[in-house]
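User: quick one, fold this
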Amino acid sequence: MKIVVLDGYAANPGDIGWDELFTLGDVTVYDRTPPELVVERIGDAEIALVNKIFLSDEIMRQCKNLKYLGIMATGYNIIDTRAASAYGITVCNVPAYSTPSVVQHTFALLLELCIRTGEHAESVKNGKWSACPDFCYWERPLVELSGKAMGLIGFGQIGKGVAKVATSFGMDVLACAARKRDSSGMDGVRLTDIEELLSSSDVISLHCPLTGDNKNLICKKTIDRMRDGSLVINTARGGLVNETDVADALLSGKLGGYAADVLTDEPPANGSPLIGMPNCYITPHIAWAPLECRRRLITEVVKNVRCFIDGHPQNVVNKTK
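Assistant:
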């Protein structure tokens, strides 16, 4: 079985290894692949593994031997799954591997907006506390989470993990999802619709996949329905927000803050309206990047390939013949 990894570096820059994958076939690993070389590098391989490379109908049409696409991530919006089904290509992702890390990162971003830990630590380093006439100071108003309402758009495993932590902070949680979800057994969590969530939340956190239906979900129209000074957290996908509208809302003060681990274009080679905005923190898509998390990812990627080779694929995200 010929296997090619097209963009392996982000998930595995050398601190994990590909030993288990190499036991499954003739494997070639590329750190990165530019768009113009995707077809050439897949060549006559039956299996291709990708992280963020977009695979279109046109690419798959030219890769006649391709039978399996393994996504080294949970989101699969990089694959034209309809075309894959038409060509008889099985597409599999890795669900839930990043849940603890993304939950952790969600609160790292939220707490930075509320307490400005980095900003205050930097001011101490620069001598401000040493020169202060009082025993303490703060650069900006500080926010306590207890008693605030947190709205979760998306209530899968990550959303539920965030809800659990939020309630431990004393927050009330509102949640909505495209599919009906169960919140039984989760004290302090109430399922609702998007309209009530937008108007009743102090913090809104995104935990849904990017689809054609929810692109630019956070835009001027939905921001206008939010409480003045609301905080928005995005650890899902950059395309869920209209970055220009969010930047405008930050400048006007309608939004009290925006913090995200994702942008519409990654990397933002041509910039982003959000970079440099006041009350805005952007991290470079690292919520999934702790070593422990990436180890789980690679283990499941290899398991997916093995299951496909054995004739019983798992984590399939498209309809196959």
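User: anything notable?
Assistant: The longest helix spans residues 291-309.
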